[in-house]
Amino acid sequence: MGQIQIVQGDITRLEVDAVVNAANSTLLGGGGVDGAIHRAAGPDLLAACQLLGGCPAGEARITPGFRLPAKWVIHTVGPVWQGGEREESALLASCYRESFSVAKAHGIASIAFPAISTGVYGYPKQQAAEIALAAMREWVDDFEKITACCFSEADAYRYRELCRECI
Ligand code: AR6
Questions:
Q1: Average pLDDT, the chain
Q2: Residue 167 within any structural domain of the chain
Q3: 71: Cβ–Cβ under 8 A, 6 or more apart, which residues?
Q4: Catalytic residue from among 34, 44, 142, 155
Q5: How many domains does the chain have?
């Protein structure tokens, strides 16, 4: 029986088997959490990503974590918020599902997610948190620990309000 943990902080510091990156479809780096992960992992991460040939929204790819404490990085591409009528919620749910599926296939026991799409991509934070937590609840028994890594205290508060059973 796994647990969902909510933490506030920088995902690049977490000692987990895998961290999820909120990437763009080129997988060649960017700002936000993507930039932070590439900086912390070092240049070998970009070289590994260059071999992947990109990734469509809603899918996930895996690379080593290189200099990160995490052994793996799972790169997923969230939807750009366009008002909610462009399959955004289905695509965001797919990001979580596909990331979990890739993680399970690699024997990963602990995995940490940022709040995918809620930065540059503009997804409304409350709706995104509901989708994230619903996916985490579906997969909780397939992992030892699932971590929701919130960058701000306000984001962590939002998650805690939505998840009374989370630790
Ligand atoms: N640790 C944890 N969460 C973080 C960190 C960090 N170090 N840094 C930012 N966040 P964003 P998106 C949070 O913009 O909306 C990139 O340029 C941030 O506060 O990183 O999916 C990619 O290359 C927010 O809650 O990702 C794409 O082009 C969350 O991470 C684009 O941004 C996601 O914000 C993807 O946009």
A1: 98
A2: no
A3: 17, 18, 64, 65
A4: 34
A5: 1
